[in-house]
C-alpha cells in the first residue's frame, strides 16, 4: 500500500497547508509553519515515550498510536476529498519558536542580546526592593574550569536571578584568587634552567601575574557561556593593588589588636615545596605506610615520688615508647605519660613460642633488644597494653608493679643518641592506650601536642632539620641526610646498633601530604607569623552560632574544625604573594612593624601594587620618621598564606565597592571551604570587625562521575563543562548547551556529592525538550491572542478553573523551592506538572477547542486565557534555572506584556515573578475532589480505549462512545451536572476525547450486555463502571467527531452541529465585514 501522503511529502519537505490541515488531529502534535511539520513526531512521540521512562505515564500517552493508524486509514480512504473544504476554518498552531534548541547558536545570540541591551544592569536599575549580596568566593586562576566550578557558579546564578525576579537589587561581583605556589610553580616549570637562574623575584612576579590574568580571561569566558550574570567588568582579583592594600589593612588591624605574633613553632612543612603549609593545603592519601619502631629509653634516676616503686629495678629498667617517625628521635626532649592511666613495670622474658609464630610474623623485624634477652630486663608500659605488646613483641611480660602515670613525673632517662638526661613529663588526654605503649616520645620541635607539653615543662624546641627536609649539623651523626629517606633509615640503624629497638613494623595510617606536589610533609619548628586563633576563638564560635548554615549539618562541621584548630600560620617562604609588611633589624633580627609602618606600606601598595615591596628600597618603604635608621633594617621576605588573601575579600570587595554591603547575605561554596575560605574569612572578619562576614552560608558537594567515582584524567571519566555545552560530535557527545547543564544543576541535591555523565545528561536533555515543547505548544496556540480577549475567571469552564488552580499551586511550590534553596524540588515539580498535568491532560483535551472550536469563540478564547496564564507563569518561574530557554520564548511572545507602569517588558527578567492569584486557589474542596476523580476515571477510560484499539474496534478515540454507570448518587449527580453544563469544554466526551459519553441509570439491561469493552474505576466508596462501543452517527468532516447530526444540515451535509455553528458564525461575520 502507498505510504501516508503526509509522510511522503514531509520527507521531501514539500508539505502543503492543505495536507497539514487534514492531519491536525491525527498527529496530536503542533502543526504550523513548514519548519514545524518536520518535528511533529519529535513532539508527540518523544513527549510520551519519555513520560514512560520517567514513570509518569498517563494512559493518554498511549493514544499516540492514533497518529500512524489514522494516517494509514486515511490514505486508504483517499485524502483529497476530505482535505479541502474547511481547512481555512481551522486554527492551527503557529510560531517561529523552534522545537530544537539549536543552543550552540541560539544561546550565544541571546547572551549577545542581553549584553547589547545591558539587560542585567537594566533590571537591577529598575528593581527597587532590598539589596541582596551573594559574595563570590574566588576560584583559583589556574587552569580551565571543571564541573565543580560550573556547579558552583550556576547555583549562584539561579539564586541571583530568582532574587532579580523578586525585585531585589543584586550586586554580584565575581572574583579570582591569583597568588600562590601553584602559579609560581607553573611559571618555574615553563622555564629552562638558565632562565630560572636569571629569575629575580620581580621577573617571577611579572610572569605569574600575566599567567593569572590570562587564566582569568579564559575562565571568565567559560563562566559567561554558562549564562552567569555578574558584574564582569568590575570583577575583583586578589592581585589588584586596591585588593592587596585592603588585605594589608586587615593584617595591620590584626597586628594592632594583638592577634598576630611571630613564633618558633612546629608547622606543617613541605620539603618538596620548601614552605609551610596550612591545614587546607594538605591531603591524606590512602595507603601511606610508615616505619614504626618500639624503642627503649634507659631510666637512670627516679623521682622522690617513685623512688620506692622503681629503685629495685634499676639499672635494668627502661621506658618503652613507639613512634612512626624514627627521624624525630634525635629531637626527643621528654617522654610523656597520661597521669590518669595505669602503668606497670614488666619483666621481659622469651616467649615459649617460636619467633615465626609472632602474629603478623614476616612484617615485624625483631630488634637487638629482643634478639638477645640476657639477665633481667624491665620495661615500663601501660598496664592495659601488656597482652597486646606481649603478642606483638613475641615475649612474655610479667607484671611486677602497677602505679598511676602521675607517679613517674620527673624521673629521668638517657637520650639514646646524645646521651643527655631527659625528663619524664605528664602530657594530656592525647595519650591513650589505643596504640603504642602508653608512653609518648616527645619532640616539641616536631609535633603540635609535643609543643604544648614542651611549653608546660620549658623543654627545648629542638628541630635539627632544614627547609629541604635534611638533618642539620645539630643532628650530629645524621647531618645532611634526608629525614623522609636515608635519614630515617640511618636513625633506625643507629638505634638498633645501640640496642634500643624492640621491634620495627610497617604501619599504615593517614599521613599529611602536600596537595600540590603530592609528597609527604613533616612537622617542623620554624620562625613563622601566626594569627592567634586562641585569642578570639570564643567570638568565632559565637558567630558560627549566629550564621544560618545550609545544610544544617554544616554548622557542626565548621564548629568542630574551628574549635579544634591551632593558631593559623600565615607566613609562606614564597615570592608570588602579598608581602608580610615587616622589617627586621639587621643585627638583632627584631621585627619592626607598627601602625605607622603598615600604613605607609599600604599606601605604596594601593598605588603601585605589591611588586613595590620587591623593587623599592627599605628607605622608601619605611615612613620618613625612620629615614635616619633605615640602613639598620632589612625587608622581610615572607608572603602571606593565600587563604589570608581570599579570606580578606569581605574587606576588599564588600567594604570597597559601591552598592555592596557588609556582611554579605550569602556565601556559597563547596564543602571543602569549611576549612578553607569560609573559615579564613570568618577568622579575619571576627579578628578585626567582631562579626561574621556572612549571614548565611550554603555548601555543595563534589561532582563525581555517573558511578560515583572521583573524576580523574587517569580514569578517563572527566566530564568537562565546555564539552557538555559545545559538544564534541553529534553522536556520542552532542552539544547540549548551557541550559541543559543548568537544568542538571537544578535536578541534583547539591548538599551532598552529585553525579554526572552521558546517561544523566541524556535524561536531562529529554526533560529540557519536554519543557521546550510545553512552551512551544503555548506560544503556537496563542498566535492570535490579545489580552483584551481575556475571559473573566468567573466565566471560565470548570476544567479551566481547575487548570488555573493547579498552576497557582505549582507556582507557589516552585517559589518555596527557590526560597529554601531546594532546586531539585523545583525540577521534580516542573517535570510532573508539564508531563502529567499539562501534556497528558489539559493540553491534550484543549486541542479540540483550540483547533476547531472557532477562532473567536468563547470556548477557544477561554482556553487561550488559561494558556496565556500558563505561558506567562511558566516562562518566568523557570527563568532562573533556564534563562536562555525563557528568554528565547519571551522573544517569541505573540503579544506584548505590559508592566504595572504601562511599559512593555522586552526581556523576561523585566517581567518579575508572577503576581499571586489567590482567587485561583479558592476552588471549593468538593470541586477539587471531583476533578481528582475525573482524572482517575480518565486514566481508566484510556485503558478501555486502548483495549478497543488493540481489538481493532476503533482507531481514533473519537470513534468511540463511552458509557458510565456511577454507583454513588452524589458523584453521579455531580458528573451528570458537569456533563450537561452549558459550555462544551466541561462535557465528559471532550475530557475523554471521545465522540460521546452516556451516563447510564443502570447496567442491568440487555443492551448493556452487548457493549463490547468494559472497565471499572474504584475510588473510595464509589465504583464507576465503564463501557465502550463504536460512536453513534457519522464522522464530521471538520472535527472528526461522530454525531447523529452529520447529514442534517443542507448547506453543510458533512458537518456536526458544533462545526455547523462555527462555520455559520464565521461566514456571517465575514459577510458583515465585507458589508
Ligand atoms: Zn465537527
Automatic annotation (TrEMBL):
Annotated keywords: Aminoacyl-tRNA synthetase, ATP-binding, Ligase, Metal-binding, Nucleotide-binding, Protein biosynthesis, Zinc
Top EC category: ligase
GO cellular component, one term: mitochondrion
Keyword ATP-binding carried by entry: yes
Origin: domain of life: Eukaryota
PANTHER family registered for this protein in UniProt: ISOLEUCINE--TRNA LIGASE, MITOCHONDRIAL (PTHR42765:SF1), SOLEUCYL-TRNA SYNTHETASE (PTHR42765)
Similarity annotation: Belongs to the class-I aminoacyl-tRNA synthetase family.
Official protein name in the record: isoleucine--tRNA ligase
Organism: Zostera marina (Eelgrass)
Amino acid at each position: 500500500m502507498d505510504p501516508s501522503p503526509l509522510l511522503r511529502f514531509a520527507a521531501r519537505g514539500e508539505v502543503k497547508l492543505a495536507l497539514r490541515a487534514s492531519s491536525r488531529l491525527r498527529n496530536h502534535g503542533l502543526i504550523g509553519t513548514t519548519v514545524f511539520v518536520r518535528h511533529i513526531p519529535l513532539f508527540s512521540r518523544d513527549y510520551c515515550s519519555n513520560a514512560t521512562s520517567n514513570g509518569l505515564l498517563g494512559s493518554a500517552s498511549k493514544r499516540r498510536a492514533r497518529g500512524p493508524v489514522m494516517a494509514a486509514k486515511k490514505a486508504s480512504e483517499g485524502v483529497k476529498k476530505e482535505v479541502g473544504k474547511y481547512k481555512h476554518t481551522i486554527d492551527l498552531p503557529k510560531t517561529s519558536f523552534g522545537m530544537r534548541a539549536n543552543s550552540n547558536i541560539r544561546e550565544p545570540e541571546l547572551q549577545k542580546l542581553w549584553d547589547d541591551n545591558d539587560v542585567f544592569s537594566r533590571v537591577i536599575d529598575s528593581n527597587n526592593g532590598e539589596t541582596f549580596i551573594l559574595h563570590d568566593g574566588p576560584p583559583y586562576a589556574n587552569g580551565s574550569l571543571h564541573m565543580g566550578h560550573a556547579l558552583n557558579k550556576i547555583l549562584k546564578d539561579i539564586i541571583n536571578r530568582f532574587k532579580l525576579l523578586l525585585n531585589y537589587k543584586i550586586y554580584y561581583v565575581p572574583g579570582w584568587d591569583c597568588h600562590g605556589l601553584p602559579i609560581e610553580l607553573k611559571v618555574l616549570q615553563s622555564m629552562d634552567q638558565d632562565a630560572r637562574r636569571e629569575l629575580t623575584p620581580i621577573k617571577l612576579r611579572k610572569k605569574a601575574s600575566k599567567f593569572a590574568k590570562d587564566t582569568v580571561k579564559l575562565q571568565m569566558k567559560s563562566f559567561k557561556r554558562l549564562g552567569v550574570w555578574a558584574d564582569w567588568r568590575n570583577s575583583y582579583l586578589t592581585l589588584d593593588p586596591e585588593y592587596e592594600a585592603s588585605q594589608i589593612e586587615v593584617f595591620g588591624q590584626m597586628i594592632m589588636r594583638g592577634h598576630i605574633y611571630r613564633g618558633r613553632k612546629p608547622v606543617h612543612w613541605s620539603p618538596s615545596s620548601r614552605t609551610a603549609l596550612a591545614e587546607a593545603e594538605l591531603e591524606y592519601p590512602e595507603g601511606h605506610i610508615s616505619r614504626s619502631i618500639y624503642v627503649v629509653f634507659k631510666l637512670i634516676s627516679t623521682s622522690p615520688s617513685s623512688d620506692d616503686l622503681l629503685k629495685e629495678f634499676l639499672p635494668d629498667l627502661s621506658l618503652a615508647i613507639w613512634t612512626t617517625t624514627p627521624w624525630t628521635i634525635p629531637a626527643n626532649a621528654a617522654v610523656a605519660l597520661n597521669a590518669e592511666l595505669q602503668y606497670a613495670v614488666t619483666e621481659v622474658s622469651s616467649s615459649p613460642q617460636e619467633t615465626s609464630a609472632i602474629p603478623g610474623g614476616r612484617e615485624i623485624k625483631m630488634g637487638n633488644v629482643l634478639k638477645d634477652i640476657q639477665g633481667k630486663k624491665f620495661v615500663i608500659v601501660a598496664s592495659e597494653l601488656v597482652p597486646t605488646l606481649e603478642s606483638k613483641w613475641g615475649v612474655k611480660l610479667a607484671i611486677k608493679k602497677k602505679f598511676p602515670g602521675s607517679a613517674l613525673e620527673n624521673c629521668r632517662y638517657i637520650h639514646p643518641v646524645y646521651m643527655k638526661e631527659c625528663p619524664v613529663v605528664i602530657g594530656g588526654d592525647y595519650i591513650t592506650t589505643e596504640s603504642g605503649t602508653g608512653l609518648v616520645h616527645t619532640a616539641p620541635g616536631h609535633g603540635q601536642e609535643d609543643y604544648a607539653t614542651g611549653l608546660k615543662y620549658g623543654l627545648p624546641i629542638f628541630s635539627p632539620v632544614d627547609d629541604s627536609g635534611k638533618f642539620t649539623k645539630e643532628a650530629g651523626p645524621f647531618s645532611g641526610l634526608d629525614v623522609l629517606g636515608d635519614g630515617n633509615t640511618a636513625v633506625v640503624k643507629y638505634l638498633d646498633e645501640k640496642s634500643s629497638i624492640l621491634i620495627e613494623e610497617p604501619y599504615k595510617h593517614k599521613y599529611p601530604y602536600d596537595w600540590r606536589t603530592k609528597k609527604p610533609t613533616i612537622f617542623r619548628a620554624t620562625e613563622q607569623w601566626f594569627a592567634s586563633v586562641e585569642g578570639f576563638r570564643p567570638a568565632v564560635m559565637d558567630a558560627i552560632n549566629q550564621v544560618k548554615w545550609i545544610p544544617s549539618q554544616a554548622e557542626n562541621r565548621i564548629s568542630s574544625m574551628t574549635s579544634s584548630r591551632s593558631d593559623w600560620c600565615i607566613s609562606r617562604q614564597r615570592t608570588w604573594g602579598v608581602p608580610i609588611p615587616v622589617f627586621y633589624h639587621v643585627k638583632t633580627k627584631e621585627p619592626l612593624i607598627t601602625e605607622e609602618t603598615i600604613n605607609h606600606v599600604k599606601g605604596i601598595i594601593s598605588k603601585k601594587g605589591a611588586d613595590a615591596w620587591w623593587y623599592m628600597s627599605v628607605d622608601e618603604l619605611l615612613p620618613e620618621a625612620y629615614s635616619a635608621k633605615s640602613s639598620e633594617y632589612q625587608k622581610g621576605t615572607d608572603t602571606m598564606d593565600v587563604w589570608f588573601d581570599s579570606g580578606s575579600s569581605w574587606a576588599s570587595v564588600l567594604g570597597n565597592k559601591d552598592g555592596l554591603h557588609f556582611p554579605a547575605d550569602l556565601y556559597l561554596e563547596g564543602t571543602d571551604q569549611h576549612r578553607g575560605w569560609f573559615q579564613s574569612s570568618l577568622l579575619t572578619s571576627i579578628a578585626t570587625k567582631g562579626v561574621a562576614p556572612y549571614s548565611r552560608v550554603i555548601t555543595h558537594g563534589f561532582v563525581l562521575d555517573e558511578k560515583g567515582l572521583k573524576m580523574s584524567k587517569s580514569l578517563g571519566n572527566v566530564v568537562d563543562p565546555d564539552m557538555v555545552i559545545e559538544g564534541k560530535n553529534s553522536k556520542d557527545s552532542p552539544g547540549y548547551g548551557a541550559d541543559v547543564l543548568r537544568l542538571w544543576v537544578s535536578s541534583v541535591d547539591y548538599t551532598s556529592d552529585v553525579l554526572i555523565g552521558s546517561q544523566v545528561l541524556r535524561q536531562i536533555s529529554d526533560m529540557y525538550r519536554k519543557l521546550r515543547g510545553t512552551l512551544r505548544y503555548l506560544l503556537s496556540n496563542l498566535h492570535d491572542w490579545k489580552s483584551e480577549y481575556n475571559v473573566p475567571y468567573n466565566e471560565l469552564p470548570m476544567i479551566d478553573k481547575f487548570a488555573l488552580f493547579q498552576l497557582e499551586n505549582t507556582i507557589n511550590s516552585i517559589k518555596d523551592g527557590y526560597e529554601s534553596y531546594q532546586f531539585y524540588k523545583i525540577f521534580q515539580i516542573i517535570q510532573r506538572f508539564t508531563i502529567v498535568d499539562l501534556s497528558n491532560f489539559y493540553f491534550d483535551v484543549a486541542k479540540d477547542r483550540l483547533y476547531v472550536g472557532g477562532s473567536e469563540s468563547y470556548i477557544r478564547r477561554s482556553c487561550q486565557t488559561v494558556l496565556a496564564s500558563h505561558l506567562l507563569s511558566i516562562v518566568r518561574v523557570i527563568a532562573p534555572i533556564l534563562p536562555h530557554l525563557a528568554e528565547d520564548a519571551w522573544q517569541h511572545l505573540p503579544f506584548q506584556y505590559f508592566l504595572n507602569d504601562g511599559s512593555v517588558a522586552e526581556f523576561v527578567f523585566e517581567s518579575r515573578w508572577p503576581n499571586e492569584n489567590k482567587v485561583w486557589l479558592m476552588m471549593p474542596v468538593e470541586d477539587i475532589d471531583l476533578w481528582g476523580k475525573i482524572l482517575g476515571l480518565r486514566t481508566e477510560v484510556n485503558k478501555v480505549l486502548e483495549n478497543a484499539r488493540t481489538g481493532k474496534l476503533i482507531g481514533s478515540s473519537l470513534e468511540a462512545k463511552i458509557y458510565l454507570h456511577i454507583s454513588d448518587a452524589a458523584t453521579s449527580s455531580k458528573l451528570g451536572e458537569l456533563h450537561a453544563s452549558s459550555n462544551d469544554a466541561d462535557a465528559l466526551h471532550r475530557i475523554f476525547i471521545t465522540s460521546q459519553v452516556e451516563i447510564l441509570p443502570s447496567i442491568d439491561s440487555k443492551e448493556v450486555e452487548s457493549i463490547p469493552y468494559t472497565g471499572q474505576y474504584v475510588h473510595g466508596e464509589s465504583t464507576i463502571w465503564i463501557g465502550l462501543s463504536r460512536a453513534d452517527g457519522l464522522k464530521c468532516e471538520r472535527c472528526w467527531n461522530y454525531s447523529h447530526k452529520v447529514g442534517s444540515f443542507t448547506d453543510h451535509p458533512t458537518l456536526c452541529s458544533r462545526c455547523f455553528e462555527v462555520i455559520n458564525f464565521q461566514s456571517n461575520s465575514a459577510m458583515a465585514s465585507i458589508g
